[in-house]
């Protein structure tokens, strides 16, 4: 028999649901995420107008946070956005 790897949790899909499950599972177990290609190869970006995220080399988490706070027009909790 070849090499055998083991893990506690296997998550199929790298969309928002899969990555949320991976974050939760990783708190108390070993988790592996299976995706069909790159982590960005998911349909989450097409759901309800998309999900904003800093993916471009011209963007950054800091700029994304500033944009989110500006778009929220004072309704966002800065700590939650951070």
Describe the structure.
It is a single chain. This protein is an alpha+beta fold. It folds into two domains: 1-46, no CATH class; 52-82, no CATH class. Helix content is 32%, strand content 10%. The chain contains three helices and two strands, in the order E-H-E-H-H. The protein has helices at residues 16-26, 61-71, 78-81; strands at 9-12, 31-34. Strands 1-2 form a two-stranded parallel sheet. The N and C termini lie far apart (47 Å). The relative contact order is 0.13. The mean pLDDT is 83.
Task: Annotate the secondary structure layout.
Layout (H helix, E strand, L loop, with lengths): L8 E4 L3 H11 L4 E4 L26 H11 L6 H4 L1
Q: Helix proportion of residues, in percent? A: 25-40%
Stretches where pLDDT falls below 50 for ≥5 residues? none
Shape type: elongated
Structural class by secondary-structure content: alpha+beta
Q: Largest beta sheet: what is the strand line-up?
A: 1-2
Main beta-sheet annotation? 2 strands, parallel
Task: Give the topology string: H per helix, E per strand.
Answer: EHEHH
Overall strand count: 2
Proportion in β-strands: 5-15%
Mean pLDDT: 83
